[in-house]
Amino acid sequence: MNKPLEKLNIFSFKGVQMRTFHLSWMAFFLCFFGWFGLAPLMSVIKVDLGLTKDQIGNIIIASVAATVVARVLIGKLCDSWGPRKTYTALMGICSIPVLMVGLVHSYEAFLLFRLAIGVIGASFVVTQYHTSVMFSKKIVGTANAVAGGWGNLGGGVTNMVMPLVFAGFVGLGYLPEQAWRLAMIIPGFLLLVFAVLYYMYTKDTPEGNFDELHTTQTDSPKTKGSLKAAAMDIRTWALFLAYAACFGIEITFDNVAALYFFDTFDTSLAMAGILAGSFGLMNLFARAFGGIIADKVGNKFGLQGKGRLLALFLAMEGIGIALFSQSGNLTAAVVLMLGFAMFLKMANGVTYAIVPFVNPKAIGSVSGIVGAGGNVGAVLAGFLFKSNGISYGQAFLYIGMAIAVVAAVLALIDFNKSRVSHPAPDLETVKVRQ
Predict the structure, then answer these.
(1) Where does the chain cross the membrane (predicted)?
(2) What is the pLDDT of residues 264-297, one digit of tens each?
């Protein structure tokens, strides 16, 4: 009988566990193409649709706002319907607005499509859920960090690739206002194809799909009141703030980086995409590195040590963003961007190295609240970028200052507060509720 793996061999595709691991991060990667494929093309779209700065700000907010609610709903579907069907449906349904966004010719229609596309950001929940059930608790943190980091890598690659796809259509003789619309067909089509592949080649659990398993209500862990228990714990909300300050700023930067470099430093569209993409490429290692450091600190200094580490990384991130906002030339901006990106992505990893230990009986609820925090942070940051009275540079400065405040708050939180005495159910022994 298949069981959760106790070793992560990233070069292996053998077995349903490793096959699901690779298909999960690849799906998350492609979801970023659909989610942020429009971001590096906004300088062209702005001209084509005659968008104002305020309207662009609304579009940035819309792209992440829907994800807040979607993550909660998708999490419930994973529990009841299974991650395989949930991911298949999510990619299949969200491929439609990605494919059809090129049909719009007004700001209002574009805003609605951007809101609909934002639902695909809930893919993070399915990725983390699916890798969690495929691996032993001994390595599930590593598996989640690697899958999450490699999936987030899609945000950087998107900024690099979509301008090239756009340029390819221009090279074929299409006008810019036609080329950006055609470019979005590529990620939409890939999402549709991958939805089919995911359904065919993954399982809900190592033992099989939910509808193949025969269990009773008593086989499942008791989760009644878990959401209330998670919401009543101050550490949950501290991590909510932390994730707003790291992942929330990451997806905000994915949205505005190319436009910022294009407008501020007069780069080409392709160069702006490459520079913005280098920010996302650091997910290849930085998020996992943060998780690894957190585990080492936790083994020596406990949960409080992890909390202090998270506060330190957030403080360094905030300082880095503030300095980035004041950079006077392109070289300095790129160096500072890579610096704060390292601390930001390590903070992502540390956050989810703490989440499982806040309340062992409400891990899912804690994860859901903290994950939603990332998108709430992105929504709040988006308001700064839509203001006509604030430049993008000033917006980054205010964000850096806000992150420093969050870091100070985190440093005051007692993460060693007594936890619920009942242990968390082992992933190896918990059976899935039908």
Answers:
(1) 21-44, 56-74, 86-105, 111-129, 150-174, 180-201, 237-262, 268-286, 307-324, 330-355, 362-383, 395-413
(2) 898 888 898 889 889 988 988 899 898 888 878 8
